[in-house]
Amino acid sequence: MKTLAFTHRPPASLAVATMRPEPRPKLISVQSGFRRVPLSYGRHHGGYAVTWPGAPSVRVESAEEARVVHALVARPECRDIISQPLTVWYEWRGRVRRYTPDLAVTFSSVPVDLQAMGAESRCLVEVKPFGRERLAQAVWEAMRDVIRAATGRPLILLSSRTAQGEEP
Description:
Elements: E1 26-32, E2 47-49, E3 58-60, H1 63-73, E4 78-83, E5 86-92, E6 95-99, E7 103-107, H2 112-115, E8 122-127, H3 137-151, E9 155-158, H4 160-163
Parallel strand pairs: 8-9
Antiparallel strand pairs: 1-5, 2-3, 4-7, 5-6, 7-8
């Protein structure tokens, strides 16, 4: 039986690359009330979502946001919802970026299903349609980290189904 001997080494230019850790986002500034929900003239379904009797309606960018607001308001633990609460500017991967969470929510006690998603008594919410709530992991972690650094609050991702307590 013949044994094979390998004497060829790859050139140094093809050396195995080492994985560098993802850079952390750097918070630049935070501003409340910077971004307003724009008027919609096309298929985009913006408008208002009714909350509690006697409370002002919440301005929403889409029908999915309205469904999430209604699902959260239906929970007895939900005490307050604010649309487009703040905007953060941060630097990440060599670019200055801006991010505005869809909602700020306050709970008297955090529902167990939302607690499992990282919610706390005061948290910020990004709304995505069911089945499309997955963001690239690095992007999601950067947004979540910069929001925590700016506000001390967690950022959670909800669809109308997950806001109602259905399994994701």
